[in-house]
Amino acid sequence: MIAVLRKLSLISIAVSVSIFTPWVYAQLELFSTAYQSQPFTATQQALLKEHNEQPEISHNQQQLAILYFLFNRTDLLQPLAQTLPAETDPQGAGLKTFLQGFVQFDNGHYAKADPLFESALSQASQHAANTEQHDKWLAIIKMYRAINHAYQQHYTQAIDQLGKIRVEAERKSWPTITALADFLLGDVNYQLQDYEAALTHYQRAEAGYSDANRLLKAHATMARSQMINIVGERPQAFALLEQAITVFQHLEDTSALAYAYLLMSYYFDKDGSPEEALEWIAKSVTLREQLGNVPDIANAYVHYASLLNDNGYNQKALIYGKNSVDLVQGTDDLAGLWDAHVIYANILYDARQYKAAFENMRKGERALLKKARLDMTSEAARLNSEFSLEIEQLRNQQLDHANEVLGAKLALNEQKQRFQTWLMAGLVTLVLVFAVTVIVIYRLYKKNRQLANHDVLTGINNRRKIMEIGEQSFSVSKRYNQPLSVLMLDIDNFKSINDKFGHNEGDNVLLFIANQCSSSLRSSDCVGRIGGEEFLFVLPNTTADEAAILANRLCNAIKTTSEVTDMSIDLVTVSIGVAEFKESYSDFIELVNQADMALYDAKNKGRDQVGIASLPQFSGA
């Protein structure tokens, strides 16, 4: 099962005053704990009653909007935010626009949310109120703008912005904003799959919230539980999640409960308890359908469909899989789009609907490639920024030195010999600076090429590079009618290795496999890492029979060699799919998909073996 648990339910920020307190901006409190002390329904009813009695007072609407914001009830917040008055007071300017941006963000429309957050920040910044409340409000808007950048794959930018806000908040003794910045930094690192770093930030957030911030602290507890389930002990993850659920149930935080139930389902599934897993995910689906948030419903449907299919409820799984694909189409959530299509493709494949499975797998791959391109563009922009900064520093050094030389020339004009000595020294220095500049540029160029073409962990070709090599080889084979084969290798039970031995040992296994693959190839062959535990081989001038010999030899070599290594795991096995170029294939991707299907066949037959694609069997018909 490949279901990816998406966005953590973001901790909300309350910009409000205590219930029943007259709306006076001088009394405005950030992160008020008033709404975290009693159930949602009781607070909502009190505010609605106050609003019905005094409908002409606008602060009643604002307090309601902030309550819905705090409890992540965008189903109630969206219509209310449209009717809010535009505040012009410095301590609340831009609140309406900010809430509208949050609604778009929570519904997965990150491109629409971005200009709204920018506009809210501009409105608030126009009022240069030199107060702590105003400064906190600006920090709040910037944090949500930053996390929206993260969901647009601008990770470096988001981490930099959140890190600066956290440092400022800690320096000014704003503990709640400091804790929230840590929480959001944890969310960004979770997206980057740096789970250890995410766990550290969530722990700091949980410790940073006061006991009065019950809801915020419970969200951090739930987030810490999720990370511990990945990198720690599952019993501790269960205990922390149950602790958070108790708070959510008491405060009637339906949105948080829906996510907590989904996590509980995920834990039980990984713990080998399918009945409990299905029971909890059904609860999550029910709550998310009630709330009506499209990305959240799609996320729950994906997990539900995968669980149903794993436990033999294939027809029901097909329905929820199709619904998840339909729902996620209208969002900017590329990871969710990839997840929905891949899960649905697996369900269709198990239902023997091979053509539809192939189409959905291709759509999922396109979403993943688009996300990868955005990730690479973001990383390239970061490297280019670093490169430009170093060049600018060198240029400034050159200008500073030129000024020194000119000053020396004017001051020593009457002493020709001394002037010539200074001039020579200046020229020598300029040559050295130029040489240093060339060296720095060359090193940055090599670093950039290395990052662009090679996998950071294993050092072999990355997905982009091996696919480029494959496309070139495919063109040659098609033009000159030469044989070409590909291998798709997947490490058996790799998730279990990570769960049992930890991610460091998982990385050691990946390095071991990469070394075994590289040492088994001819000079004309190429291998690259295309996913977490998947490797792709491109074998020019090689028939399927020859490729199968190599694949079997590689399977045996990995199994045999792993028994005598110093890794913690006793035995590592792999499954390999083999596919050969056919004239009927339109592009290299089709050849790779044939190998991938052969790989699935090898895994279905028990793993630790080689599957060979044949055109009639794996054409998707």
Automatic annotation (TrEMBL):
It catalyses: 2 GTP = 3',3'-c-di-GMP + 2 diphosphate. The chain crosses the membrane at residues 422-445. Its EC number is 2.7.7.65. It holds the Pfam family GGDEF. Keywords: Membrane, Transmembrane, Transmembrane helix. SMART domains: GGDEF. It is an enzyme of class 2 (transferase). Residues 482-615 form the GGDEF domain. PANTHER family: DIGUANYLATE CYCLASE DGCM-RELATED, REGULATORY COMPONENTS OF SENSORY TRANSDUCTION SYSTEM. This is diguanylate cyclase.
